[in-house]
Amino acid sequence: MHPDDLTMNDAMIRALLTQHAPQWAALPLQRVDSSGTDNAMFRIGSELVLRIPRHRSAVALLSKELDWLAHLDGLPLKIPTLRYRGHVAPEIDREFGIFDWIHGDTATPEAITDTDRAAIALAGFLEALHGVATDGAPVAGPSNNSRGVPLADVTARTVAAIETVSDEIDATAALAICEDAASLTHDAAGVWLHGDLKADNLIALDGNLAGVIDWGLSAVGDPAVDYATAWSWLEPSARSTFRDVLELSDSDWLRAKAWALYGAVIALSYYRGGRNEQLCRQCRLTLSRLDLLR
């Protein structure tokens, strides 16, 4: 999917464990299938998972998670707990982390019993996250692929991506969303944000929303990036519940819609054509919920 993707296999990870964490080296090892594009994941036994960057541009994203996840401890949904931090050098020169495995399933619609309850749970989680102290935290921009910067800063990229996928979407309507939101800003201090609240990064257990994983795009910025989950994950019937709980303004809602559009067209324009069909299906679902898919 990327020119510098590193080939990972069980033997390589087993050797890494033997060298760095021998206490877990004899446990069963299984690669985790995911539409994620930044990290390879290997489950270690039944209670741990190793994550290691697949390509160079993902190295800083995982290092940021390793630095800051403990600072976010105590949120109302489970987030990854770091058990070991290692550095593989000089052969591939990148950090890796071993985390507690969060039990459950990918939070697809079939895995959620009550969509309104899930919307309320996610809204409460975001209220708590957005209240976490931000002193010294990474600011939205290069550290998180621009998630949460002023929308005007990503307008040109969004427009270019819309043009690339104009064979699949209503480009005129998409450009209208982009242009209407470009002048809007978050007028308060930036807050902690996750940056990528889609099904693959949410965990369901016993029909309920239970966990939030993959914090590589987290930073301090405009929380509308997280409100974009109203189109990228929430069922449409629960969208108003989510908005009401968070008491979002018209500006918040339009910026959220623009961020949902941005995430979908950026990923679809790059990964379609066989690079990552699972991720493209998620993008097309978001665009459908935005009433943009042809």
Which series of helices and strands comes N to C? HEEEHEEEHHHEEEEHHHHH
Q: What is the tally of helical segments?
A: 10
Q: Which percent band covers the strand fraction? A: 15-25%
- Uncertain regions: pLDDT < 50 for 5+ in a row? none
Commentary on this structure:
Helix content is 37%, strand content 16%. The mean pLDDT is 94. It has two domains: 10-100, Phosphorylase Kinase, domain 1; 105-289, Aminoglycoside 3'-phosphotransferase, Chain: A, domain 2 (Alpha-Beta Complex), CATH 3.90.1200.10. The protein has a five-stranded antiparallel β-sheet, with helices on both faces. It has a three-stranded antiparallel β-sheet with strand order 6-8-9. A two-stranded antiparallel ribbon has the order 7-10. It has helices at residues 10-20, 59-68, 115-129, 155-164, 171-182, 224-227, 229-232, 239-246, 250-271, 277-289, and strands spanning 29-31, 39-44, 48-53, 82-88, 94-100, 105-106, 191-193, 202-205, 208-212, 219-221. The protein is globular, with a radius of gyration of 19 Å. It has 294 residues and is an alpha+beta fold. The protein starts with 9 loop residues before the first helix and ends in a 5-residue tail after the last helix.
